[in-house]
Amino acid sequence: MDNAVVLNLEQMILRVPHLEIEKRTMLENKKKELQNLLSTSVGHCESGDIAENERLLNDIKTSINLLENEHSQALNAISRINVNDYGYCEYCGVDIALKRLNYLPFAPHCVDCQDYLERKRV
């Protein structure tokens, strides 16, 4: 395996515990922000306040989903390493290009299969 890929893998593995901390910190900050908005809008909620609260809630949900997705992908890559399946496409089984793994160390699919799967979802 390419040294750069190994380095990226090590960085990814080290990042997994930090994802949980980042998620918790982000949630605490967003909770405080939401509590501040709610405490200042009690009794005089205007349509702009409601729209702002909905936007904030959507931002929180998006941030949580992104962090959970990255965390899940990192854990999946680690499990593939443990069973010697890392670097092979989960869909077709071919080697994932080193260039792709350098860019996205937890990539589960080769570029062709990823493109196919994304088009299939649409």
UniProtKB/TrEMBL annotation:
Q: List the keywords (alphabetical).
A: Coiled coil, Metal-binding, Zinc, Zinc-finger
Positions annotated as zinc finger (dksA C4-type): 89-113
Q: Which domain of life is it from?
A: Bacteria
Claim: Coiled coil is one of the keywords in the record: yes
Signal peptide region: none
Q: Which residues form the Zinc finger DksA/TraR C4-type domain?
A: 85-119
Q: Which Pfam families match?
A: zf-dskA_traR
**Coiled-coil residue spans:** 50-77
**Keyword field contains Nucleus:** no
| Protein name as annotated | Zinc finger DksA/TraR C4-type domain-containing protein
